[in-house]
Structures are given as C-alpha cells and as structure tokens.
Specification:
heterodimer, A: 220 residues, alpha/beta, Glutaconate Coenzyme A-transferase, three-stranded antiparallel β-sheet, B: alpha/beta, 13 strands, 15% helix, globular
Chain lengths: 220, 217
C-alpha cells in the first residue's frame, strides 16, 4: 500500500490521449467526476469512445464532451436528456450505440470479472437482438451479451484513503464500482482524502487494489 | 379529476402491502399519493436504491431519482450499484412495474422507447424492467393526440419487450391481456362499452363481471 497513487491535477492530462475508450461513472451526471471531464476538455482530447449510463445534460458530466464534439462514439442506455447527442447522431457526427441499462451494467461487470459474456432475456424479440447470438436455456430464450472494457475508467467517489479504497455517496455509486474492474487505468476523483486505516474495511465499496490514481476534487 | 389522476388512482389499487414497486417517469410517479393509507410499499429506483421517498427539505448530495431529480430516502433505504439494481429488476425481485406506453398490443407487447426518425431517447432501464418485473402494468392515455388507439392488434413501433404486459389502465378503463386478447375488466365513470370499443383498434372482449373502475382509497 505504499505505491503513490495521489496525483496533482497537472499530471492528470498526461494520462489521456486521442481515440481512447473511456468509461465514466454517473447517472445523469450524478457520480460523474466533473474535474476529470474538465481536463479532457482543457487538453483538447478528441475522438473518444465514451461508455456510461447516459450522456447527461449539455453542460453536465460527459454531456460537455458531447457538446464540444470530443466523442466519436457513445455506448449508453439513454440520450434523452441531452438533445445535442441526438442532433449530432442525426447529423452523422456521432455514433450512438444504445444498450439496455441492465445489460450495460452486466457487460461492464463481465469485462472486469474475467467472464466471456452473459445471457440475458432483456432485448429478446426487440431490435436489441439484431446480430446477436441467441441461446435457449431451460426453455427460455436469452441473448449472448459480450464483455466490455475500456482504456480508462473515470470514477467519482466521496472518500478515499491514500491507498485508494473508495466510498461512494448515495446514488452517486451507480456504475462506478463496476467500472473500477473494467479498465486498464482507473482514476478516481474524490472529495475527501483520509489516512490508510481510517475507512472501516466493512465500508470499503471499491478495494484499493483496483484504483491506480487518485485526484482530489478542486473546490471540494 | 383529469385523466392522468384517474389512471394513477386506479393503478394505486393494484399495489399490495409489502410490494417492491418500480414506477416509470411521468404519470406513474403520481401513483404513491393515491395509495390506500394502510398499504406500505417499497419503491425501487433503477439508479441504485430501494426506499425512494418524496423530497423533504433541501436536496441531498447524490440523492436523485431515476429521472435525475432530487428525491428522498425513507428510513431503512438501501443503496447499491447498477449491477445489483438490475439484478433486482431482471431477477424477478420487483413485484410490479408501472410504465407509460406508446403502444400496447393484444399479445402483451409494449412499445415505449422510440419513434423512429422522431424520438430516440434510448431504452434506459425500461427493457430490463418490462422483461424482469413480476407484473407489468402500462398506465397511459387511451389514444394519441390525433385520436389513434394506443391499444392495438400489433404494435407498429419498435418493441420494449415481448408478451410481458398483463394489464393496461387508461382513462377509459382497465384492460387485462390474456391468450392474445384484450379483456375489458372495468370501465371509467360515465364511459360506455361502445365508446371504449370505438376508441380501441384491437378486438375487445368484455369481462362477464364488468364493473365501474375502482377508484376509492
């Protein structure tokens, strides 16, 4: 637990590159690390593939990246709260892959858990099944949904210890703990930093072993 | 009473003591205020908790409903991640989900997530909810703004899930779906069977015990 994970904001930008696939926690922006999104904007990072629940609002969360035209593709369950996503999709400037929310969660879980995929009944008999393998188990039809991984996962946590154990706040947890497993580099933006040992082991929601970098929220 | 309140009042009668319930955005969120006083239910929110309650006082960090709006947590609420949230939903641990609809057909198919070329918000959690909840109730206005029936023989819009809807409540009545047929179970006050049939584009069986809509609470 002596590896230095806490980094400064000017170091964050060096971790990003054009064309990366990035997972971001959050549900309509709640649980999205706004500071990390800002760095992506400031550094002019482009052609991103974004994976997360939704594209939030034009001025919130990853909605800001969509608004600025920084995304090449988004893989999300919902774009309804951000009209710019739909506009750019229709204009052919943005590829949008819509995935049922529970399926998205499981694909990310599989990607982080070493699983080759999951069988889900969700989407059977709808356009979601197009092009997918189907399997019948005990008489019920399922879709084979494949694992998803990313180059980087951007997490938002309420509290971290210096080793990287994370605690999320209320419904800001959502996809964050799943994504902590499913990316090559995991960066957590946290509101509070405490000493190792100050978080009760029973209360840890994401174990430190999954977290590579921690940055303290600006203005928090 | 406007038609939305009528629908919400009637659906509230379907929720029984101890049920775990997920309510879709819009009209379904009106339902809790019409619950009978002696019925306690637990509301599930797909962004990751059980124990959704009304907002009391100031919004709290991280406490929002599935529409992204500030809400409350009741004492005894539990928070979890999105995989757990959808394990609850898909795994049959939600007793009832009530959602709005664009079209429902006589085979229990529901279309409520897109209108090609016009409205493509995404399915969010709707496909999982309709697939996994033990009972799916659709609460919607009977016709479109142009007067076209939303109860159809076959949905024309892309489906949310196949053969999962067992009840539809509209401002005209309560409809069961069984073995490929709509069955009129209850009619709204001052609405005749002929009027309902005229506004429904699918064949309609009339239940032997047809009665007025139960709205008392």
């Amino acid at each position: 637990m002596t590896v230095r994970k806490l980094i400064e904001w000017d170091e964050v930008g060096t971790l990003f590159a054009d064309g990366m696939t990035i997972m971001f926690g959050g549900f309509m922006g709640v649980g999205t690390p706004e500071g990390l999104v800002s760095v992506l904007l400031e550094k002019g990072i482009n052609k991103l593939t974004l994976i997360g629940n939704d594209t939030a609002f034009p001025n919130v969360g990853v909605g800001r990246l969509v608004s600025e035209g920084r995304a090449r593709k988004v893989i999300v369950s919902h774009i309804g709260t951000n009209p710019l996503t739909g506009k750019k999709m229709i204009a052919g400037e943005l590829e949008v892959e819509l995935v049922p929310q529970g399926t998205l969660a499981e694909q990310i879980r599989c990607g982080g858990a070493g699983l080759g995929g999951v069988l889900t009944p969700t989407g059977v008999g709808t356009i979601v099944e197009d092009g997918k393998t189907k399997m019948v188990v005990n008489g019920r039809e399922y879709l084979v949904e494949l694992p998803m991984r990313a180059d980087i996962a951007l997490l938002k946590a309420k509290r971290a210890d210096k080793a990287g154990n994370l605690v999320y706040e209320r419904a800001a947890r959502n996809f964050n703990p799943l994504m902590a497993f499913a990316a090559d580099l995991v960066i957590a933006e946290v509101e509070e930093l405490v000493e190792v040992g100050e978080i009760d082991p029973d209360m840890v929601m994401t174990p430190a072993a999954l977290v590579d970098k921690i940055v303290l929220s600006r203005g928090a | 009473m406007d038609s939305k309140e009528l629908i919400a009042r009637r659906v509230a009668q379907e929720l029984k003591e101890g049920y775990v319930v997920n309510l879709g955005i819009g009209l379904p969120t009106m339902i809790p205020r019409f619950l009978p006083a002696d019925i306690e239910i637990t509301l599930q929110s797909e962004n990751g908790f059980l124990g959704l309650g009304p907002l009391i006082g100031e919004p709290q960090p991280g406490v929002v409903n599935a529409g992204g709006q500030p809400c409350g947590l009741i004492p005894g609420a539990a928070i979890f991640d999105s995989a757990t949230s959808f394990a609850l939903i898909r795994g049959g641990h939600v007793d009832v989900t009530v959602l709005g609809g664009l079209q429902v057909d006589q085979d229990g198919n529901l279309a409520n997530w897109m209108v090609p070329g016009k409205m493509v918000p995404g399915m969010g959690g709707a496909m999982d909810l309709v697939t996994g909840a033990k009972k799916v109730i659709v609460a919607m206005e009977h016709t479109t703004k142009d007067g076209e029936s939303r109860l159809m023989q076959h949905c024309a819009l892309p489906l949310t899930a196949k053969a999962r809807v067992s009840m539809v409540v509209t401002e005209l009545g309560v409809f069961g779906i069984s073995h490929g047929e709509f069955i009129l179970l209850e009619h709204a006050p001052n609405v005749t069977v002929d009027e309902i049939k005229a506004k429904t584009s699918a064949p309609l069986l009339v239940a032997d015990g047809l009665k007025p809509m139960a709205l008392d609470c």
